[in-house]
């Protein structure tokens, strides 16, 4: 399989993954059909909404200004709905996809504010009667300090009873597929609609693994509070002092959320990693803007051995074992020949 064919397959899979996520999780407030779903949601767009045609919250508010965001919820079940609600700041995962739910991704230190301190959920549990209607009300208090760009996050809603069943399945549930639906409503906050010039930088670089596969991770920082769309990223790993790339990864169609730190993996595939000093060069292109960074890093022998042994792609290096076996076989044959020569000479 050549590189161009592999690239087309990667793009196709990423597109399908993005479509799946968009349909099943990131519904952005679209009022879904009641068929098969425990509940449906519909955001109530306030007067501060920048664009009334979208189905998520995109608000322009002044510093310290307050407002209440409302999401209508309809319970499609014949039993009470115990709603689980959560808030999280928007981040970007290693596949270049923006996530609006809880995760372990970090944010750049230049972020205007923590989303959890700007948007607050009600403290009381939310319960909706069978086939009834209810509301999720969030209190928004804009940061005191004016900022340029966007503060993005999301409200995640799910069925708390379904969550409990998934977390603690009984024997019957253990053999069944657990279908857990979540609705994520995006929330974008800003002081103005002026465009912000994006700026990227390269942070920590170190070897590691993703799904038991060896990679070199480069942390790409979005230093600005703005989305960076249609991002093309190329990562090349070479030895310090050499211009020859040992490992290369190219990706397209990425999106960085405001102030995101995206871990970009350069895949080593089935090639083993050895000790030494290396350099990672990252080139990123988005809408006629281009960035290029490079940073050196060191791989110790112990770290290389640990990664190679635990990788599902790197084949064990049996060179020394084969040499030992060959040497042992040769010694045995030689000893046999010598013994035969001695016996023949005596006779």
From TrEMBL:
Residues 39-158 form the WxL Interacting Protein peptidoglycan binding domain. The chain crosses the membrane at residues 323-343. Keywords: Membrane, Transmembrane, Transmembrane helix. Pfam families: WxLIP_HBD (PF11797), WxLIP_PGBD (PF06030). Residues 173-309 form the WxL Interacting Protein host binding domain. It comes from the Bacteria. This is C-terminal membrane anchored cell surface protein. The lineage of its organism: Bacteria, Bacillati, Bacillota, Bacilli, Lactobacillales.
